[in-house]
Amino acid sequence: MILPLNRLKIGRSGEQSAERFLRGKGMQVVERNYRCPQGEIDLIMRDGDTLVFVEVRRRASTSYGTPAETVAAAKQRKLTAAAQHFLLSHKISSRQALRFDVVGIVASDKGETVDWIANAF
Q1: pLDDT tens across 76-88, in order?
Q2: Tens of pLDDT along 2-19?
Q3: Where are the domains of the chain?
Q4: At the topology level of CATH, where does 5-117 sit?
Q5: CB atoms within 10 A of CB 19
Q6: Rounded to two decimals, what is the model's pTM?
Q7: What's the pLDDT score for residue 99?
Q8: What whole-number distance in Å separates Cα of residue 112 and Cα of residue 20?
Q9: What is the DSSP string of the chain?
Q10: pLDDT for 105 beyond 70
Q11: Distances (CA, A) of 50 to 4, 5, 18, 55
């Protein structure tokens, strides 16, 4: 799916904000925008010994719920499948500690609010 340029820029801006936030928490970037036939993972990071798959959602308001609430079961399944692809293609041990985080960002005229849900699903 090809996104309109404006939506793509908004998405990238959210991912950059999430990356800055998580790096500030001591996490290290492994890969950005990992794409495979199963889908895309916005950020793959390392938090100590744990490999973290991060879904980033950015919204202008919470009128229709929080950004994190938009990561429904179908999206969770796609992220899990993409993570399995990453693990297999990079020959990462099945003993590797993993988790899935969601970073929700609400951007308004007053700035950004970041909501980080570690181990979201």
Answers
A1: 999 999 999 999 9
A2: 555 455 555 577 899 999
A3: 5-117
A4: Trna Endonuclease; Chain: A, domain 1 (3.40.1350)
A5: 19
A6: 0.88
A7: 98
A8: 12
A9: -PPPHHHHHHHHHHHHHHHHHHHHTT-EEEEEEEEETTEEEEEEEEETTEEEEEEEEEES-STT--GGGG--HHHHHHHHHHHHHHHHHTT--TTSEEEEEEEEEEEETTEEEEEEETT--
A10: yes
A11: 34, 34, 18, 16
Q: In one letter, which amino acid is 23?
A: R
The answer to whether 30 touches 41, Cβ cutoff 8 Å, is no
**Separation CA 62–CA 53 (nearest Å):** 24
What pLDDT digit, counting tens, does each position of 24-81 carry? 999 999 999 999 999 999 999 999 999 999 999 998 888 788 888 889 999 999 999 9
Tokens of 37: 């036939």
